[in-house]
Structures are given as C-alpha cells and as structure tokens.
C-alpha cells in the first residue's frame, strides 16, 4: 500500500510503499492479547515476599504439654494461626515471565503495525529531527502536523538527540528507536508515527 509522507511541519514529502506482509495483515486480537500479557508478565519485578514458618523468629519449644490441658495440640508459637506467626501459601520471590514462540512475537508486532495502518492511525514522516532541541518549538510543529498528545514516535536505528530531548517532557509522547518497537507501546498510544528510516528498518526486520 502507498502512504503519503509528510514532514513535521506538515509539508508534503512524497509517498512510500508499505509492504503488505508487514503492514497489511488482518487483525488478530488473540495474538495481540497473548503478546501484551507476555510483555507485562516479563516486566513484573516478582519481589513480593512473606515469611514462612522457618523464617519467623521464636522458640521451637512446645508451648504447653500435649495432653491434659483441654486445649488444641499446638507445637510452636510460630504457627500461622497465632499473632505474629507465619503466612501459609503466601507469595514468594519468583519470575512471572512465561515463554512465547518467536514466530508468535513477530506476528504480533506485524499485526499491531497493520492495525494502526488499517485504522488510519499510522503517519509516516520524512525524518524525526529537531535542530534546537526545544520542547516549545516541537509542540508547535506537532500541532501544525495534527499530531495529538497520545503518540508513539519510532525513528531509525538511532533517534536524533535533539528530537529525543525536546520530546521527553511531553506527556503522552514516547520516542523509540526502530529496534525498540514493541506491541504494548504501539497499542497504548493512539497514533503511531514512523520515519522513513523506521519503515525500512522494520520491513527488513520483519519480512
């Protein structure tokens, strides 16, 4: 498919042909769901922790004799039913990450790009560059280009330093290099903006 290319000043910069095998796939909600779960599970710290009975400070002596008191047959004050005792089946430090085949991950990224393209939420710009690295100047350019506050910018293999610095204080604006393109960030922003270099890099990576 052919897509119009603009500059950040909303000037015409020609057209670019997007590969159908990357930007023209049908929407697969199941694949996107699996990928988002995979990403969010992998980023979880998993540092939640409770103390088991072996970690509770206290004597191991039997608290009273086994028989004759009419009370329950307890052996230690550290049991979970006592105040200050252990927690049973509580969370422990662990990794929440799970496996997802590489082919599924590649398909999910291509599907996310296709969903944006088919929904009219994909914008291709000539280049992502800001000479003065000023946030105010960048905001004016984005407003002129009709780009809102929920936008993901993906540049080439290296993002222009001036553009990155100018955009880092803007709420709802994310800037990534092409190798950092991922399904979760693409879906969480309303508009996806790719540079020419990003399109070439993603097509070379995903074809």
TrEMBL record:
Subunit: Part of the 50S ribosomal subunit.
Family stated for the protein in its record: Belongs to the universal ribosomal protein uL4 family.
GO MF, one example: rRNA binding
Matches recorded under HAMAP family: Ribosomal_uL4_B
Protein name: Large ribosomal subunit protein uL4
Protein task: One of the primary rRNA binding proteins, this protein initially binds near the 5'-end of the 23S rRNA. It is important during the early stages of 50S assembly. It makes multiple contacts with different domains of the 23S rRNA in the assembled 50S subunit and ribosome.
Record Pfam families: Ribosomal_L4 (PF00573)
Gene3D superfamilies to which the protein is assigned, alphabetical: 3.40.1370.10
Domain of life: Bacteria
GO biological process, one term: translation
Entry keywords, A to Z: Ribonucleoprotein, Ribosomal protein, RNA-binding, rRNA-binding
GO cellular component: ribonucleoprotein complex; ribosome
Protein source organism: Tistrella mobilis
Gene name of the record: rplD
Cross-referenced PANTHER family: 50S RIBOSOMAL PROTEIN L4, LARGE RIBOSOMAL SUBUNIT PROTEIN UL4M
